[in-house]
Amino acid sequence: MDDRFYFEKSNLKNNEISFSQQESRHISLVRRLKIGDKINAFCGDGYDYFLQISQISKNIVTANVISKKYNITNSNKHLTVFLAVIKNDALNTVVENLTQLNVEKLVLYHSQYSNAKVSHDKLDKLKNISIQSCKQCERAKILEICILDKKQVIEELSNYNLTILAYENEKNNYSNLNFENVNNVAIIVGCEGGFSPVEVDEFDKAHVKSISLGKTILKAEVACTVLAGCVMNSLGQWGR
Fold it and tell me: Domain 78-234 is of which CATH architecture?
């Protein structure tokens, strides 16, 4: 894989990019690249930027933009995952996997059975995990991650063509869903303790489609990955 790095869009000025101290050190000290070397970079806007290094100092590397190209992995379908907060290691895995699966957005919320906590301070760490995943799978869009309260989640669900709730007690399965003329989907996954009856009723009133993922109870991070993969396949996003 070609050298591929991340930069903040605000650091692109007059066709020149300045990398962060961390990325600059990786370029100069780890990869040992030199002035004149060509690299590939992205900033999360969906484009790959083809650059030539113009300056290397102790902590800052700058490069000139030669050209840019819209990344072929970008999807014209939109998938958002609503996930009740789970433990840090599992959450990190979710962010890594959803980035690779071309999911657009991850919404975290605290449910009735959530034991773990998440704060806005954690979002920067999760963003960095998504950036590293983008580098590895050659995506150019970073997973958007935010935190909403339960009321905001319910209100947000009206924005989607189809909303799917992964609920272990549901009899209907995934094959009963209809994806015809659907391009904006949300899936809802609970934490390790699942959903309370009150929460299931709240989602039902929001016209959510409840489905079972089979007889085996999946851990939250596995359910997120499996269901997101199924939806992206149903939306026709696996073909070239």
Answer: 3-Layer(aba) Sandwich (3.40)
Q: How far is 234 from 240, CA to CA, in rounded Å?
A: 14
Q: What's the order of all strands across the beta sheet hosting 61-70?
A: 4-6, 38-42, 47-56, 61-70, 16-18, 12-13
The answer to whether the CB of 91 falls within 8 A of the CB of 126 is: yes
pLDDT in tens, the chain (240 residues): 457 999 999 999 999 999 999 999 999 999 999 999 999 999 999 999 999 999 998 789 999 999 999 999 888 899 999 999 999 999 999 999 999 999 999 999 998 878 888 888 899 999 999 999 999 999 999 999 999 998 999 999 999 999 999 988 888 889 889 999 999 999 999 988 888 889 989 998 898 999 988 888 889 999 999 999 999 999 988 755
In CATH, which of 2.40.240.20, 2.40.160.60, 2.10.10.90, 3.30.750.24 is domain 4-70? 2.40.240.20
